[in-house]
Amino acid sequence: MAFELQDLLSVEGRYVGFDVDRDAIRWCRKVFRSDARFRFEIAQMSSPDNGGVARRRYEFPVPTRGADFILAKSVFTHLLEPTARSYLQETRRALAPGRKALVTAFLFARGSRTDRGASPIFAFGDDRGLVRWRWKARPESAVAYEREHFLGLVSEAGLRVEWLCQGFWPGDATRYTGQDILILAA
Asked: Which sign does the torsion angle of CA 123, 124, 127, 130 carry?
């Protein structure tokens, strides 16, 4: 994303990229080291509970209401519900008034081919049928949310959906293949 933004950012513009992949962050820091507009941080992931000891939730490395635009491309597709809820709350905290966030997710509708038991792609899920994942041993490798449930998480975080482009992940060649894209605002 940073390469694409290089020509779009003004001299005063800033980009803060963060990821859990240390090697990717090291590479970005090396490639963009001469461009002061870019900063890359390693996301310090932690579980909500560490053996009974509550841990502070992860905060995006930007000040409150300090982000003009937030991009979470292929992020929510790897987050289980507690972390997704936290990231949506962080999106709300960090987003400047009147600004937008673009997020992608795998969303499914109840009763569709992609619902519980109907899809070999996301064969595992929670007892409520609201969150599905691809691999039993590694749920975060690919996560899908029941659409209305995910929209409820967005609303609970104090955000609203301004635009939703329904994608469709593998399994139906008659429709656009890709993640759902949402434009969110506070």
From this structure: negative
d(CA 168, CA 107): 8
Alpha carbons within 13 A on the beta-carbon side of 17: 21
For residue 123, the model assigns a pLDDT of: 84
Which residues of the chain are modeled with pLDDT < 50? 47-54, 116, 170-171, 173-176
| Helix segments in 15-77, DSSP class H | 22-31
pLDDT of residue 108: 85
Are 144 and 107 within 8 A, CB to CB?
yes
Domain annotation for the chain: domains and CATH numbers: 66-185 (3.40.50.150)
Spatial distance between the Cα atoms of 6 and 32, rounded to a whole number of angstroms:
10
What does pTM read for this prediction? 0.87
